Every structure is written in C-alpha cells, then in structure tokens.
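Q: what does this look like with nicotinamide-adenine-dinucleotide bound?
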Amino acid sequence: MSYFEGDVKNVAVIGAGAMGSGIAASLVLNGFKVIMIDIKPEFVDKGLSNIKRILDSRVKKEVITSDQANEYLKSVKTQVDYDNLAEIDFVIEAALEKIDVKTTIFCELDKILKKSAVIASNTSALSISELASHTNRSDRVIGMHFFNPAHVMKLVEVIPGLKTSQKTIETTQKLAKSLGKVGVVVNECPGFLVNRLLFPYMNEALYALELNLASIVQIDEMAVQFGLPMGPFTLMDMTGLDVCLDVNDFLYNEYGERFKTNKLLKLMVENGLLGQKSKAGFFVHDPSLAYGANKEINPKVLELLSGLRKTEQIKDEFSFNQVILPMFNEAIYAYQEKVVELADIDVAMSYGCGLKRGILSLSNEHGLKWCLAQIEKYHALYGERFRPSWFLKKIVRSGIYNIMEMTDNSQKDGLSLAKLT
Ligand SMILES: NC(=O)c1ccc[n+]([C@@H]2O[C@H](COP(=O)([O-])OP(=O)(O)OC[C@H]3O[C@@H](n4cnc5c(N)ncnc54)[C@H](O)[C@@H]3O)[C@@H](O)[C@H]2O)c1
C-alpha cells in the first residue's frame, strides 16, 4: 500500500462546532483548503460564522487584510454529506464526544476516502485504537488533540493508536507544524498527557478546600504565583463543572484511587452549579463582565462546604505543594509508563495549559529527594491520591538530583523548554 506522496493539501474537518470551526480556521490561515462537514446546514453555517469571526478579529488586529480574510473564507467549503472527498489527504474528526457517533463516522470515511488518506480524531478521551478498529486503515488512524480555542492554542497532542504507522505520526507532526503548532507525541493512555496531569491537581485543590486548609481565592492566587495562567477554581468554572466531573470520574475508573473524585464537585453538579455556563460555580459570573473579572464567591458553595467539612480539621500548615505535587507525581507516572518523552512534558504543559514554568522544574528547584519526601508525607496523611510513582523512588535511590539530568534537551528538535522562552 503506497502512502500519499508529498504534503497534505486538502483537509476535511468533520464537525463544525467550537473545535471543528477553530481547527478549520487554523487550517485556512495556514494555506490549506478545507471541507467542513456537519449534520445540518444550520450547524455548518454556525461554524462558518465562527471562522468569519476569527478572521475578522485578525483583520481588526491588522494581522491580515480584509482581502486576505475573504480569500481564506473562500478556502472553506461546507457540506452536510460525504460527497467530493476523493481528493482529501487528511481528515480531522471533531464531532460529538460519543463513541458510537465517532465509530460511524470512521466507518463511513474509511469506505469513501482514498486509501492513502489519514483519519485523525480530536477526541478528548476516547480510544484511538478502538476508532481505528472500525476501519481497514488502522495504520493511518491517529489522535490529533487540539486545545481550545484551537486557532490560538499551540499544543497538539499527537496520539498514535496500537497500529498507527510511524509515517502517519510523521505526517501528523508535519501538519501540526505547518499550522504553527507544537505536536507532542503521547502514547495512548486515558486523559492523554495534559488532562491526565491537570486533573489530579484540580482534584487536590478541591480536597484542600474541603479540608478548609485554604480558601478558594487563596488557592487560586497561589496557582497564579506558581506560574499557571489562572487558578484551579477559575479554570473549573470556565471548563464547566459537569465536564470536569465526567473527566475525573473517567480517569478514576481507568487509574483508580489516585484520581478519587472529590465530593464537593459531585455536590456542585447535583445542585446545578456548573460554572460560567450556569452563571454560578465557585464564583458568581456576571455575563456583562470579562470572564474571571468578578471574584465574588458563590455563597451556595460555602453552604455546601460547611455541610461537608468535619469539625476536626487537620492541623497541617498548608502549602501549595500539596496541590501541585500530584501533577508532578502524575508526570513521573506518565514517563514511567513510556507515555511521553521526558523533555516533552514541560513543553506540553506550557503550550497546552499555559504553565509558565515546567512542572518538572520542581525537581530542579528542590531536588527529587525533597519531592518524594513531600509526596510520601501527603501519602501518609491523605492516602492513595498521593501514592508515589515507583520510578520516582528508583531515581531518588539512584542519587539523581534533578530529573532533567536524565535527558539531554539540546538534542530535542525544537521541543526543549529552554527553547520555549
Ligand atoms: N471543547 C473543548 O474544549 C475540546 C477540547 C479538545 C477536544 N475536544 C473534542 O472535540 C470534539 C468536538 O468538541 P466541541 O467542543 O467542538 O463540541 P461541539 O458540541 O461544539 O461541536 C460538535 C459538533 O459535531 C457535530 N456533529 C455531531 N454528530 C456529527 C456527525 N455525525 N457528523 C458530523 N458532525 C457531527 C455537532 O452538530 C456539532 O456541531 C469532541 O470530541 C471533544 O471531546 C473538545
């Protein structure tokens, strides 16, 4: 079976929602012709309006001219069927996050696309290998996980399934690069990399709140001081607490106790406190203000918390390390499982969630021995959420001070944290 020669030229995007239209905008802005497909004309129209809005904002900022914006818009064709896909080299599926919707799409596309075409999924969590099993081209099926908003965020997690070929990985990396993105290869695992590392941290922020170790505002401020663009509670409100609950429950089912879902999150969702989308989460959201501008705490959360909190509180001085070390520990677990190259972890967290300093820099700052001792201290206090990775213990025993000693960043092609700044 011959692979297509040359570069990807014609791309189809399936799903014209928030992600599909953002991905299509990114494609046309970088010179690709795109066919964008959804199930109803009003959905493709909405996607097209979103692309127009993105292009208009570039015109306003004088990044492109209005003539260019018109040309780019003409590079997007929309349709509600699978006609005219014979010339398509690469499909990015960004439809609903439901396995039966996606498998039907993969099955259909496999029948009509040219044999050499690649089918990529922007799924947040579903199995790439499972999607591939519904096609006769498992070697040309891959995950291409963009971050929201897709035309802005620089990270793309490139996720090979069990049978994905090296050539498909390279083609996908090349496509990501030609969109001005940084593609980080993440071997398939639940949550891929960024969500897998973010959730133990957000979850632990919830536990710290439940234990009354610090307030919502204090923890959010500490996160910003650490180098995150916003605190965990602001982030959860923006993401949607229902989405956070689904993802955390999914990760708990896959990985077990390290991800044990916090009760407050469940309670908030049960009470309809979904964050920005329901105008109330940890904060009260005033739609007339920019997101995050209002720092007024939702009194209903405090009410729910007082029902949850035990009278006897743990008398341990609170440090933000308690909240951030689960992210560090999970990063080492991911490396232990060969999910990702060490040097790519900080790159992914920087481009995927705006972490200004690397999470692995904790070992540079304090030493691995300190990191392990802290994690073990919290493990003794709080149990399995803090079980340290055996690999972390192994490297501490070997006397390595800083985990980055294990890799030579200078050999990485454009992916070292040093090159980010
Ligand atoms: N929103 C995010 O932050 C985010 C980030 C990364 C990945 N994702 C993933 O991207 C995908 C899309 O998410 P979204 O936020 O754009 O959702 P969305 O609800 O905004 O858009 C989904 C679109 O898919 C369309 N659709 C449904 N069935 C279809 C079909 N059979 N064929 C073609 N189109 C179909 C819907 O009509 C809708 O327009 C999901 O898999 C999601 O998990 C989302």
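The chain has two domains: 10-185, 192-421. Residues 192-421 form a domain with the N-(1-d-carboxylethyl)-l-norvaline Dehydrogenase; domain 2 fold (CATH 1.10.1040.50).
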